[in-house]
Amino acid sequence: MSTSTAPEAVPPTGARPRVVLGVSGGIAAYKSCELLRRFTESGHDVTVVPTAAALKFVGAPTWSALSGKPVATDVWTSVHEVPHVRIGQSADLVVVAPATADLLAKAAHGLADDLLTSTLLTARCPVVFAPAMHTEMWEHPATQANVATLRARGALVVEPAEGRLTGADTGKGRLPEPAEIFEVCLEVLARGAVAGHDLAGRHVVVSAGGTREYLDPVRFLGNRSSGLQGYALARAAVARGAEVTLVSANVALADPAGVKVVRVETTAQLRDEVVSAAASADAVVMAAAPADFRPTGVSTSKIKKAADGSAPAIELEQNPDILHEISTQRARAGQVVVGFAAETGDDTGSVLDLARAKLARKGCDLLVVNDVSGGAVFGSPDNEGVILGADGAATEVPRGSKSALAHVIWDEVAARLQD
């Protein structure tokens, strides 16, 4: 059994990671103040490079106060230090948030008419763009071509969120929440020296959370799954360049940046959405905990206590086996399917014995095995496990962050994806 580790998504010790925060001229520029605060409070050395238009929304004193250093606003300040070259050369990460349609166009075409665009040309570190604009601008063929060009060159362009835009408009084009952009940036920083975007051009589906099977309008059968591991998998996949669909069952977590989130409640709903999304997916990771059983009938009114103190009998039936279905009825040739097994072991075998039997029974390519004896793993920020392969491989992942486990899982998936 091999042991694998992945870089933790935290700033490395020693020298402070150097981050350039580019801000272009959109109303969402005010949200970047929160992103800057998260970087500085977590120990990063941040240089803010706003465009002239961005300074119309948020002034230089604000950026200076939050970053704790002078703000670089133009190529003419401190010319002897050659800022239009040095800032990009010395950066460990460049993130542009918000990235307007104008900024994306300039970056794609190699224009260098101000300090930010010059910095983008000289940077040899990972570059992340977080677009924000009206839906029509995002969907315009010119913008989509520019985004494709940037991605082809190795930049990570995060998909914008859907929601309220400027004025009364709503749609796709909203800047993802700063906390989630920050999480993606940590993932990119952690992997900066490891590998590029090995999932670029891939569509992956991740399920997360625990399903609910209703007994009546207020009661349900459920489980303790928090969705943290599934969300970590989604964030890690975005940082590696994938298009991500996250089918989320009853999870109280913020939407990861750049991820399409589909919300469900029951196992039947989870099955329908996973099967639908899997039709165009290169990989499916079933990190959700679907209920194995559901009531044969659901009361239309709240079930009342009986006067004699007796409890109602609840008849159950099996739910569809989603993992078995998508494993044995592959939507696409070469599709990689990953399952999870939360095991405790019993008189019939150990945790790994039961997991190997489940791997064979389900027909998936990989099975991530968690020992959940005593309620371990559920709701915890950390995880550990063994990744079993249908080819006989077994990779032990020691205890660490759920993000670290997520990257090991994607390593195993990437190794099995076909061109």
UniProtKB/TrEMBL annotation:
Region ranges (Phosphopantothenoylcysteine decarboxylase): 1-203
Query: Which parts of the sequence belong to the Flavoprotein domain?
Result: 18-188
Gene Ontology BP annotations: coenzyme A biosynthetic process; pantothenate catabolic process
Identify the pathway.
Cofactor biosynthesis; coenzyme A biosynthesis; CoA from (R)-pantothenate: step 3/5; Cofactor biosynthesis; coenzyme A biosynthesis; CoA from (R)-pantothenate: step 2/5
- Free-text remark on how the cofactor is bound: Binds 1 FMN per subunit.
Write one Gene Ontology MF term.
FMN binding
Q: Does the keyword Coiled coil apply?
A: no
Cofactor(s) recorded for this entry are:
FMN; Mg(2+)
What is one GO cellular-component annotation here?
Answer: phosphopantothenoylcysteine decarboxylase complex
The UniProt entry, under Pfam families, shows:
DFP, Flavoprotein
User: Is Disulfide bond set as a keyword in this record?
Assistant: no
Job description of the protein: Catalyzes two sequential steps in the biosynthesis of coenzyme A. In the first step cysteine is conjugated to 4'-phosphopantothenate to form 4-phosphopantothenoylcysteine. In the second step the latter compound is decarboxylated to form 4'-phosphopantotheine. Catalyzes two steps in the biosynthesis of coenzyme A. In the first step cysteine is conjugated to 4'-phosphopantothenate to form 4-phosphopantothenoylcysteine, in the latter compound is decarboxylated to form 4'-phosphopantotheine.
Recorded protein name is: Coenzyme A biosynthesis bifunctional protein CoaBC
Give the organism the record lists: Nocardioides luti
- Its gene is coaBC
